[in-house]
Amino acid sequence: MKITFTQAAIDRLQKFTGDDVKIVLDFDDGVGPFSNEANCTLALSFNLLFVNKDQDLSEFGSVLDSNLGPVYAKPYSTQQMDEDMTIDVNAKYLRYSLAGRGGELDPALGIKQIA
């Protein structure tokens, strides 16, 4: 499984990356250290997190390849994804999206920097 960040997304997100940061694609289901509450609708909700490299990511056992480096995810969350996923940003509205060949999985991908 692979995630491709578009150049527009890379340009906006690169400020959060570095040697001391890990990238997490967190399925917001109320499970884990970054998910405060589950989404109560039928829509799927994901957040792209930039966390300290020393953060315990034991709940994020899937490591996805990407053009920004490894992306950690909850193993069961990858069942919702296509083999090739894309993260893009709408420059007009600054809204990020997570999409695959089957369409948009999350049209409002959250972006968070966790210190």
TrEMBL record:
Ranges of residues in domain Core: 1-112
Domain of life of the source: Bacteria
InterPro entries the record matches: ATAP_core_dom, HesB-like_dom_sf
Name of the protein described by the UniProt record: Core domain-containing protein
Organism: Fructobacillus pseudoficulneus
Lineage: Bacteria, Bacillati, Bacillota, Bacilli, Lactobacillales
